[in-house]
Amino acid sequence: MTEYRIKYKTYPADTRILQERIPDPDGTLAKALRELDPSAYHPSADVAAVATEKSRSLRGAVIRKTSLSSATDDTPPGGLAFTNYVLRLPGEDKITGTDDDWVVSEGMIRKLSEIAKGGVGSYVSAGVLQP
Predict the structure, then answer these.
(1) Does residue 66 fall inside a structural domain?
(2) What is the pLDDT of residue 74?
(3) Which candidate, 87, 3, 79, 83, places its Cα nearest to that of 42?
(4) Overall domain count for the chain
(5) How many whole angstroms separate alpha carbon 115 and alpha carbon 122?
C-alpha cells in the first residue's frame, strides 16, 4: 500500500489493482491477495465541499505561461484520490469479523480487541495503547 501511495499519490480503489501496478518478482503479493477477502478493504477520501460563488470578471488580468508537463504534475490522474484506507485481516482463528482480527489503517497495524478496549482512535504499538 505504501509503495502504491508513493507512486500514484492515492490508495488503490480495489486490491486487485495492486497486483497489476506493483512489481511482484517473488509472487508474495499475488499470494497475499489471493488469500485476502476483497470486501475487507475500504478506501476512503477526505472531501470538502466548496460553496460556489459567482465569479467576478477579471478584466485586464494578465495571463501567465504555465507548464502543462505531466512530469511536474503530482495530482493523481482523473477522478478521486483516496487518502485513507482500512484493511481488516483475520486473526489466529483465520475468520474475518471476530475479536482477534487485525486492522491496518494508514500504515498502522492494530489488534481489533485492543482498539475496542482503548476506544475510538487508539493505536496499538508493541502491545501498548497510545492516545
Answers:
(1) no
(2) 44
(3) 87
(4) 1
(5) 6
What pLDDT, on a 0 to 100 scale, did the predictor assign at position 36?
A: 86
Instruction: Assess if residue 76 is contained within a domain.
Output: no
- Rounded Cα distance, 8 and 89, in Å: 24
What residue numbers bound the domain in which 119 lies?
Answer: 2-45+81-130
Note whether residue 71 is domain-resident: no
Residues 6+ apart with CB under 8 A from 46: 83, 84
First to last CA, the chain: 24
CA distances in angstroms from 56 to 53, 97, 121, listed in the order given: 9, 54, 43
d(CA 41, CA 100): 17
Residue 76 has pLDDT above 80, yes or no: no
Bridge partners (DSSP) of residue 82 are 11
Cell of 80: 478521486
Q: Tell me the mean pLDDT in the region 63-76.
A: 48
Phi-psi region of 74 (alpha: psi -120 to 50; beta: other; left: phi over 0): alpha
* Residue 14 resides in a domain: yes
